[in-house]
Write a structure and sequence with these properties.
- By secondary structure, the protein is mostly helical.
- The protein has a domain of about 60 residues.
- The protein is built from 2 helices and no strands.
- The chain is rod-shaped and about 80 Å long.
Length: about 100
Amino acid sequence: MGDRLEIRPATLRTAAGGADGTAERLTGAVADLRAALEAAGGCWGDDEPGRAFGDGYRPARDAVLARLDGLAEGAASIGPGLVSMADDFDGAEEASTIPGGGS
């Protein structure tokens, strides 16, 4: 019984700030990528090979951007999740009736 799990809510809250910053940078990078791809437009041309390329490129581009949007949304949920976890641990400690259970 020497192993003990110790949760430090303050550390979770600090990590939440770092996660929020990472999520913001990822969201910005996806927006920058989207803007660059839109600025490039249909640079492959409107001849037969260009149309064939565009027909394959556009759905692939849209799928990648949708997945990156989902990744950014998931990353944005990490910080609030860590804060919620810290709040839950604080609440459990306050409600604990076991002597010596606090940190």
